[in-house]
Amino acid sequence: MHIPAIILTAGKIPNASQMVKDGFWPSYVTQDMAKSIMLGIHRANDLMADTFVPKARRIDVKNSGHYIQKEQPELIVQLIHTLVEQLR
Fold first, then answer.
1. CA nearest neighbour of 46 among 36, 33, 55, 34
2. Spatial separation of the C-alpha atoms in residues 35 and 55, rounded to whole Å
3. What is the pLDDT of residue 83?
4. What is the pLDDT of residue 70?
5. Coil, helix or strand for 35?
6. Which one, of 76, 58, 42, lies nearest residue 5 by Cα?
7. Cβ neighbours of residue 56 under 8 Å, at least 6 residues apart?
8. Using omega within 30 degrees of 0 as the cis cutoff, is the peptide bond preceding 54 cis?
9. pLDDT at 1
10. Is the pLDDT reported for residue 40 higher than 80?
11. Per-residue confidence band for 35, with pLDDT thresholds at 50, 70 and 90
12. Alpha helices, H only, the chain
């Protein structure tokens, strides 16, 4: 049995200065580095999606940061329903 999968990726680029201020990132991280980090995460998630059989769907959640489930819970519910329907 193949189980469908959806990989969600935050669409917002983190604010580097805020991440440094909050203690999540070291002080040398710049906004350009934050953009590069997000690009790397998107590429890694694409590669991960390609390894699933059948291939997983990857969705960029445009107006969301790291906590997609907290920021857009209605999207999570909708996607869970989509996955359940695919299994029926």
1. 55
2. 26
3. 92
4. 96
5. helix
6. 58
7. 4, 5, 6, 7, 48, 49
8. yes
9. 66
10. yes
11. very high
12. 16-21, 31-51, 68-71, 73-87
The pLDDT of residue 71: 95
Range of the domain at 58: 6-81
Q: Residues 4-21: pLDDT tens digits?
A: 899 999 999 999 999 999
Give a yes or no: residue 86 inside a domain: no
pTM, two decimal places: 0.78
Q: Do the domain assignments include residue 29?
A: yes
Q: Is the dihedral of CA 67, 63, 82, 74 positive or negative?
A: positive
Pick from 56, 57, 73, 68: which is nearest to 11 by CA? 68
d(Cα 50, Cα 36) in Å, to the nearest integer?
Answer: 21
Indicate the number of domains in the chain: 1
Q: Domain for residue 23, yes or no?
A: yes
Q: Nearest-5° angle of CA 28, CA 67, CA 85?
A: 145
